[in-house]
Amino acid sequence: MNRTFFHALGALLCGVIISSCVPYDEYGRRIEKKKKPDRSTVTDPKQQEIEAKREEMRKKEEQRQKELGLPTSETPSGVTGPTTSTGDFTPTENTVEPPKTPTPPKNHPVAAAVPGKPGFVFSPFNNKVVDVRNIASGTLVADPQYPAADKKHFRVP
Q1: pLDDT (tens digit, 9 = 90+) per residue, 3-17?
Q2: What is the rounded distance in angstroms from the CA atom of residue 135 to the CA atom of residue 144?
């Protein structure tokens, strides 16, 4: 009997908590979610005007390319250039370049030598002693106190 009472009380408490999560305004009316308008067609007059201007500009550009003898359908968008006698397209300007990978910083800190202990330096990141024996001066070294993901590097003096 005790067990059934606690199960019923728990279920009732869960129901109250869940029903209290429904949003209401300050007058106690339930707030309904607003449906987003369907944007599959352009109905705004300004948008229709913009689309008409774009279409007009596209047609003018096609006409200009025909007058210059440039291909219109084979040309990738945003790339202009003459074709060779074999029909191959040779881009001249407005070509899309692949993004360049960022170069790592070249100004790594230089460690300070430990006085009286050749081959040992103080790490510039945490001032702990690091063994750099048999490592040439100017070499870029990873600080062993940090994981490789942190990329804490310094140069040997």
Answers
A1: 888 888 888 887 777
A2: 14
Separation between Cα atoms, residue 140 and residue 156, nearest integer Å:
7
Q: Write out pLDDT tens, residues 65-96.
A: 888 877 665 445 544 555 445 555 555 555 56
User: Under 8 Å CB-to-CB from 48, ≥6 apart: which residues?
Assistant: 42
The phi, psi pair for 70, rounded to 5°, reads -90, 145
Specify the 3-state DSSP secondary structure of 133: coil
What 3-state class would DSSP assign to 79?
coil
Q: Which residue type sits at 147?
A: P
The overall average pLDDT reported for the chain is 77
What is the spatial distance between Cα 29 and Cα 15, in angstroms, rounded to a whole number?
20
- Average pLDDT of the segment spanning 55-66: 89
- Of residues 105 and 34, the one with the higher pLDDT is 34
Is residue 157 within 8 Å of residue 121, measured between CB atoms? Answer: yes
CA atoms within 13 A on the CB side of 119: 4
* Assigned token pair, 128: 């702990």
